[in-house]
Give the backbone structure.
Amino acid sequence: MAIKKQLPRIGITYDLRQDYLAQGFSEEETAEFDRIDTIQAIEQTLEDLGFKTDRIGNIFNLTKRIANGESWNMVFNIAEGLKGFAREAQVPALLDAFNIPYTFSDPLVLSLALHKALTKRVMRDLGIPTPDFFVVENHSDIDLVNLPFPLFAKPIAEGTGKGITLSSKIENQHELENVCTNLLINYKQPVLLETFLPGREFTVGILGTGNEAEAIGTLEIILREQAEPTAYSYVNKERCEDLVEYRMVNESLSRKAQKIALKAWQGLGCRDAGRVDLKVDINGTPHLIEVNPLAGLHPAHSDLPILCQAVGISYRQLIEKIMDSALKRANSLFGEPLKKAPFKKYSEVLNPLSLVSCNT
């Protein structure tokens, strides 16, 4: 009797939006978390690529299952976390502790990238243009702000446009006082103030790790007439199908943005796939706004898949490229360098018995 070959077991970690809404969290509090159709799309695509999938869910489920002795050949991690500046790093840190490989960036990169001011300090050291800034840690800091108006204000460690509204562009001291006070109270974290950049806004898609990383294209974010003006805000992102136009651009300015984005990606040590957001200053120079090493993966709603589709990379190919990058890292770590294989041979590339797990 033929022995059935065991498929690589890929766990999927995520924070499901509907779970937190059911617990009483608000729409904005859960804005970064994933919808069920995102998980279904990732799971189906991984299975189409020849993997056996296992939905794990959030860090609480992951902790229980590891404590019960479970392990996986790899974890496809898109968990955003709930609390703290290092919330996106919590799942990768736990997986590192138990020697379980995973997709996307490590705890150091995810913690750093979420804290926008620390990211900007590293960017300046790398020689990457980023707007001048000031961090308001508490109310008394507001009087110490020494940047010229207009300014732009946002929470220092949020995503999905949380805390960004029509009032985020600040024109005078009175607005500065009101906006900073509200953000400090509502988000319970420091406020990042930046010199307002009036130019075009881009997001650059990156695939790969280290020297193999490449900028695959640039989307321009164009706010429609009915959108909140001046910023890619929380409302604009939540209702992007109606309020935002995504336009692929390939010109000297966008190519310059791609060079800056790739330098930032490699300088931070980001892995596998993600996005870098930039905006153009009054002199026509793209400035880095933030790095997103854990980008959304909804097939139709998230910026990275939208960008990939526009440059001819299907959703299946995007997930394959992410797994390619992560498998190469994992197999190298465990002493088995990856040999490039087509979809149908992925089960041969990653031998479930070749990886050390917490069960051994």
Notes: Residues 337-360 have pLDDT under 50 and may be disordered. The chain has 13 helices and twelve strands. The radius of gyration is 21 Å. The first helix runs from residue 17 to 22.
